[in-house]
Amino acid sequence: MNIHASVNQEGFESTPDTDDCAEPRSGLSGLAVGTLACAVEILAILATSITTDLIYHSTVYGTWGRQLDATAVGLFIALIVTLPFIFRGDYRLHALIEGARRPKDVFLTWNYAFISLVVLCFLTKTTTIYSRGWLILFYLTGLMVLPMVTSFTSYAVRQAIRQGRVGRRRLMLIGEDEPIRAFMRQINGSGTSVSITSCVNIDNCISGDQDLAATLTQAIRTARERAIEDVIILVDWTRIELVDRISERFIELPVAVQLAAPAPMARLLRSRSMHYGRAATFALSNPPLQPYQALLKRSLDVVVAGLALILLLPVFAIIALTIKRDSPGPVFFRQHRRGYNHKEFLIWKFRTMTALDDGDTVVQAQRNDSRVTRIGRYLRKLNLDELPQLINVLLGDMSLVGPRPHAVAHDRHFEERIQRYGQRLNVKPGITGWAQVNGFRGLTETENDMKNRVVHDLYYIENWSIAFDVYILVRTVISPRAYRNAF
C-alpha cells in the first residue's frame, strides 16, 4: 500500500520530489467567500446609485437629490444583476479565481437590469418619479464600476488564497503514479481553489485483489478523517473494471468521485452528441453561428448599416470633397480582401494614401509613412476611412463586427506560418473587431503581432453573441485602445 501525504507520523509515505500532498490551510470557506463577493457587488451598485444621484442633483439643481428613491433603484438593479451570476455559479471560488465572468456578460446583464427597471416603471406608471439625467449617469458610471469591482474581487480572492485566509477544496488523488504526478503539475500553485490533501498510489497493488481492497479501505478511512470533498481517479480509461471497482468503493463517501480525462479526451467531453438515424457521433467542431444566430447578426448589420449610411451621407460628402482637394486620385480605395470561407471581395475605403496597392505585394502603412496624404492621417487616426465599408456590410460581404479582413497577399503569407489563422474567416470579416478594440490593429511588424490578433479573433468567434457585438461597437467609439496604432 502506498498512500502519500505530508503527515508521516500517521504512517503515510511522503511523495518524493513534491510537497503538494499537504493539509489544506484553514480559513474562510468557499461559500463565505462567494457570499462576501456577492455582497461587495451589491454594495458597489448601491453606492453608485446613491452617489450618482447626489452628484447629479447637487450639480444640476443644487439639492441633495432623492436618496431613498436612489437606494430603492440601486437595490433593484443590484438584485437583477447578481441573480443571474448566482445561478450561473459565478460566485463559486474557482470561478472567482479564474475570472469566469467575461466583459460581455457584465455588459449584457447591466443592460438587462436597466431594461427591467424601465419595464417595471412603465407597468407601475412611475416613469415620472425618477430623473432621466440621473439614470443615464447611473447607467454609464455602473458600466465602468462593475467591471472594476469584478476584477478587484478576483484579485483579492487570489491574494487571500495565497496568504492562507481562504480554505481550499480538499482533494484526494487515487491512481497510478505518473498520472498523479501529471495532474499535480497541472494544478500546482497556491493560487488554485483546491488543495491536494492525499495521494493514493495503486501501482504496486493492482495485480493483487486483496492488496487493492486494503488500499481502498485505508484510503476511505483517510478521506473521512481529512474531510475530503473530491476524489479524483487517475487511471487508464481502458481499464474499465479497475475504474468501476475504485468508484464503487468511494460511493460509500459523501464526496464527488470524478474520473480525470486524458488530454485528448478533454475536448471531446466538452462537445455534444449528434444522432443520424440510429448512429451517434460526437461533434468535434460546429459552425461558429447556427442559422438563427446568423440571421440575428445579419439583421443587426442591415438595420445599423442602413441607418448609419443615411445619417452619414453629409459626412461622406464632406470627406469626399476634402480628399479630392487634398491630392489627385479617386475618392474611394478598392482592394481585394478575403471574406467568409475565404471568398474574395472588393473592400470599400476612403483613399488615404497616394499608393493603391492590390496584388501579390501590398506594403502596410507605417508610422510617418510618406504615402499617407494630409487628410488621410486624420481619417486614419479617427477611423473615418473605414466608414465606406458600411456598403460592404449591406452587400453581405462584411459584418459590423468580426475579424478584420487583410489584403489577400498578407493572408497567403500568414496562413502558412500561424496555426488556425484560416479559422478567422469562418465568420464574415468586420469593420471593427475584438482585436481592434484591444489595440491589436495596424502594422504587423512581427509574426507575434499577428498571432495576438488571431488569438483575439478566435476568442470572438468562440464567444459570439449579439450582446458581445454591441459591446464591441460601443468600445470602438469610446475606447482609446480602438484608435491605437492608426498610422
From TrEMBL:
Domain of life: Bacteria
Pfam families: Bac_transf, CoA_binding_3
Compositionally biased tracts (Polar residues): 1-12
UniProt topology in membrane: Multi-pass membrane protein
Keywords for the protein's UniProt record, in alphabetical order: Exopolysaccharide synthesis, Membrane, Transferase, Transmembrane, Transmembrane helix
Location of the protein in the cell: Membrane
Protein name (Swiss-Prot/TrEMBL): Exopolysaccharide biosynthesis polyprenyl glycosylphosphotransferase
Organism per entry: Candidatus Filomicrobium marinum
